[in-house]
Amino acid sequence: MAEGGSSVGSRTGQKKHRSFWKELPLLIGIALLLALLIKTFLVQAFSIPSDSMQNTLQRGDRVLVDKLTPWFGSEPERGEVVVFHDPGGWLDGEPTPNPNAVQKFLSFIGLMPSAEEKDLIKRTIAVAGDTVECKKGGPVKVNGKALVEPYIFPGDTPCDDQPFGPFKVPKDRIWVMGDHRQNSQDSRYHMADARGGFVPVDKVVGRAVVVAWPVNRWATLSVPDTFDQPGINAAAAVLPAAPAAMGLAGALPIVLWRRRRLTGGRTAG
Predict the structure, then answer these.
(1) Under 8 Å between Cβ of 59 and 51
(2) What residues are paired with 141 via a beta bridge?
(3) What pLDDT is stored for residue 23 in this prediction?
(4) Which of 122, 141, 145, 203 is an active site residue?
(5) Is 187 assigned a catalytic role?
């Protein structure tokens, strides 16, 4: 009996583990699934194809785009660098790369920037409700506040090549411009389009938050201080208050009339 017990214990202790090579396909599958989920819901890499955002971004840079916050209803804010799908005709005539099967697969799961999607990257200058304008020789103004724009490409002017406005940004739209103003086909160059150069918010993929590659250009893409200056939100703040003020003005005569009736009734009594 002792020998039999010893034999059972020995077999239990020597339980075979699954071979690493048999587990490898499962591990790869899980990794690919996680990469796909991250690309779809969290972060996606994009490659910069042009010089329109110099010197903030250089051709060939890889940026990581936050795709999570839009899922919670967050909309682009002034000063943010955003990636958006072509609103319609902005990239007409631009050559589209022809990636091989491996590049397509890596792009699909998010391990490589997509080469086929027609996306653009620009800086959000004005959002819904804002009034935006720029006269030749002058600065860009948002709600009457002049923007100091240190991010503009050295030697460029704010808008001398294509002045615009004043325009009021419609609901669910944004006005975008490239940092390399004299080399950017941005909102200014599509004012004659059906959307007037404004980009629909639902076309925005997300906000570019960091330059991830090359390593020597690693940097976060923060919102410049010029968009935080006092008074720039004044126009937006007035809009919600206006209905309340009108309601108060309409209710005041009714309150006074009712007060007069009650006072008259007590006096007669």
Answers:
(1) yes
(2) 133, 146
(3) 72
(4) 122
(5) no
